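User: Reviewer 2 asked us to show a designed sequence for the structure in our supplementary figure. I'm pasting the structure tokens here. Could you produce the per-position amino acids so we can include them in the response letter?
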């Protein structure tokens, strides 16, 4: 058919987002209302607060996306909505709004997987086919390695057995008394720290398995910051230099493991293309380490552009791929909070 303009909604966690995307993947507008301030004092996302904020913010965000794109709702040919994975209450707000738009505008509805959308952000930027590839999604909720067989077929080949990488950044930031969300703050103070001041664990790095674990690393930072439980000897005071050094050494350990597992996955599956998405992909040290690895090992690297790294609705452009394949959702669909394999 001749569908041309898509309205996309994303409300899976604590970002309320809407975008207008053309069929050639041009993102005409990409509006995000962050709830970070509401959750900051809790040091993490509080699900009920997130759901309520989506109810408040969603329609103004859609209105803004439509206005910025210079269109009206009547111009919309297709509705895309993230239905998995995420917080159940948050997802339900977006899905209910999306169904209402689809029913009242009488246009098709497409269900989008948030994690796949994070990887598809690379495809939007590249403006050419990138599949098959290995994909790594590193965010506050996920550290997942995928075998991306095509634009719509993703097989999970590795994931974290405890904390996600972004979650580890956020928890370590809390330990170092930095604001939430912690990733950007760790990166900022790490710039003035010594990445080899502390020799932290690189869990699973020498093993073939493609899984991650960051909980031991987080605890190691905690012990360096606050002392080991029961130990007589107290650590030095947590002054600025020590905070910077702990942040830099922690960041280096995470980056080493993430880059190491990507290289192993490329090798194991004999692929030459690597896609990186999710909030942690905004990290400058991670990006430069990936670029070095790509040069050294001669693979084709695609990191999600910064505006598509943290949660947004522009990356829901993957819905056009589903549309081309006739994969439409019916108005009875429900959300799926858990990770889909
Ligand atoms: O993709 P995202 O917006 O939301 C989830 O789906 O989780 O990712 C948010 C996560 C947070 O944990 C945040 O601390 C982390 O991405 N993050 C960063 C940076 N910017 C955001 N981590 C490290 N360095 C950054 N510059
Ligand atoms: Zn995300």
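Assistant: Here is a per-position design you can include in the supplement:
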């Amino acid at each position: 058919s001749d569908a041309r303009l898509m309205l996309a909604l994303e409300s899976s966690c604590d970002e309320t987002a809407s975008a207008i995307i053309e069929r050639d993947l041009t993102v005409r507008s990409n509006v995000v209302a962050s709830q970070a301030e509401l959750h900051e004092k809790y040091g993490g996302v509080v699900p009920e607060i997130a759901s309520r904020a989506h109810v408040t913010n969603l329609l103004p965000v859609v209105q803004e996306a439509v206005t910025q794109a210079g269109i009206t709702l009547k111009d919309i040919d297709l509705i895309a909505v993230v239905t998995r994975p995420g917080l159940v209450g948050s997802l339900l707000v977006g899905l209910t709004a999306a169904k209402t738009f689809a029913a009242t505008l009488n246009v098709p509805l497409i269900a989008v997987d948030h994690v796949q959308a994070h990887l598809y952000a690379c495809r939007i930027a590249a403006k050419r086919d990138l599949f098959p590839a290995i994909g790594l999604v590193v965010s506050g909720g996920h550290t997942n390695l995928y075998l991306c067989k095509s634009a719509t077929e993703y097989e999970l080949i590795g994931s974290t057995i405890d904390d996600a990488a972004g979650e580890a950044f956020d928890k370590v930031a809390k330990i170092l008394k930095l604001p939430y969300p912690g990733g950007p703050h760790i990166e900022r103070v790490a710039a003035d720290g010594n990445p080899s001041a502390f020799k932290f664990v690189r869990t699973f790095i020498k093993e073939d398995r493609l899984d991650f674990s960051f909980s031991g690393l987080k605890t190691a930072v905690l012990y360096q910051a606050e002392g080991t439980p029961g130990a007589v000897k107290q650590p030095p005071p947590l002054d600025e230099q020590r905070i910077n050094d702990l942040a830099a050494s922690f960041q280096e350990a995470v980056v080493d493991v993430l880059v190491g597992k990507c290289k192993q996955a490329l090798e194991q599956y004999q692929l030459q293309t690597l896609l990186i998405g999710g909030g942690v992909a905004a990290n400058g040290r991670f990006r430069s380490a990936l670029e070095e690895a790509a040069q050294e090992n001669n693979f084709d690297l695609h990191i999600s552009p910064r505006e598509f790294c943290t949660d947004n609705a522009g990356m829901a452009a993957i819905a056009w791929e589903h549309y081309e394949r006739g994969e439409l959702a019916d108005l009875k669909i429900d959300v799926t909070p858990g990770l889909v394999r």
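For the response letter, you might also mention the following. The CA atoms of residues 159 and 208 lie 13 Å apart. The two ends are 31 Å apart (CA to CA).
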